[in-house]
Amino acid sequence: MTSWERYGRTRPADGIALRSRRGAVGDTWWGRRLAETMEAVVDIGRVTRGKSYARSGQVLSLSVEAGRAAGRVQGSEETPYEAEVRLRPFGPEDQVIAAQVVAASPQLVAGLLAGELPQELEAALASAGVGLLPESTVDVDFDCSCLDWGWPCKHAAAIVYLLAERLDDEPLALLALRGLELERLLSPDAPAAEPELVDCLADFLSPRATVDAIPPSGNAFDERDESLLRAALVAALPAGPVDPGLIEETMLVLRNSAIGE
Predict the structure, then answer these.
(1) Which residue in 261, 232, 258, 239 sits closest to 113, CA to CA?
(2) HSE-up of 133 (CA within 13 Å, CB side)?
(3) 237: left (phi over 0), alpha (psi -120 to 50) or beta
(4) How would you label 132-153 residue by residue, b for 16+ Cβ within 10 Å and e otherwise?
(5) Model's pTM, two decimal places?
(6) How far apart are CA 151 and CA 111, in angstroms?
(7) What backbone phi and psi angles, to 5 degrees, belong to 140?
């Protein structure tokens, strides 16, 4: 009989280990903010117990879907535990509010179309009462198949930190976790007023500097505000899901036209 079977110690595992070996978890703003927010919402003493589990590779799998991040975590038993972190998904009304917040900001639209999750999105949504990150124990819950009734147990807490590093690599996974679809965010039922496409195109394609003023290594396109143009293109499309590929193809044509290619 091995020591972990006799004394209930953790069985060695070769799972998904945190890249962070000490200190805070999260290389990006979203990863750090999720870890910090969870530590603030729940008992930090309990949630940080899972950090050593996550660093030692005890989490064998991790999946993210609407409302939950789940994984198999190796503990002292032969069979891994099934643990999960739940974040309250946005309801229909909250989703409409979130879409309207995004539509009101060309910069947010441009960032999302580029596959990014702008840092400013959290403040904008929070000011509208629909923040992406949990604000209290009402927004988060934990579950695990182990016998530890702690909230959270170390197995579920380990999922928290692996989820934070997942957001470092895939920030848009936070939208999925809160039950938000990117297409839905970019196609609100009641979109805010956007710049007129004709006006934006005229401004975008108009010369802003003489040829002599443009550095030999640059071009006029580098100085143009692409975010406003992206937002105008989205506003000009028929209602329905936005195809990011179509937007990028249109941007490429305009970019080539702007630099005379």
Answers:
(1) 232
(2) 27
(3) beta
(4) bbbeeeeebbbbbbbeeebbbb
(5) 0.68
(6) 36
(7) -135, 150
Q: Where are the beta strands (DSSP E) in the chain?
A: 63-65, 68-73, 81-87, 140-144
Question: How far apart (Å, rounded) are the C-alpha atoms in residues 40 and 138?
Answer: 13
Residue 256's Cα: distance from chain center in Å? 32
The predicted structure's pLDDT at residue 212: 40
What single-letter DSSP state applies at residue 66?
A: T
How many C-beta atoms lie closer than 10 Å to residue 215's C-beta? 8
Listed by start position, the domains of the chain span 3-185, 197-258
Q: Is the peptide bond before 152 cis (omega within 30 degrees of 0)?
A: yes
Phi, then psi, of 41 in degrees rounded to 5 = -75, -40
Q: Express each pLDDT in 89-144 by its tens digit.
A: 999 999 999 999 999 999 999 999 888 899 999 999 999 999 999 988 889 999 99
Compute CA distances 253 → 139, 206, 237, 246, whole Å: 44, 15, 17, 11
* Sign of the alpha-carbon torsion through 213, 217, 219, 222: negative
Contact 177, 69 (CB under 8 A): yes
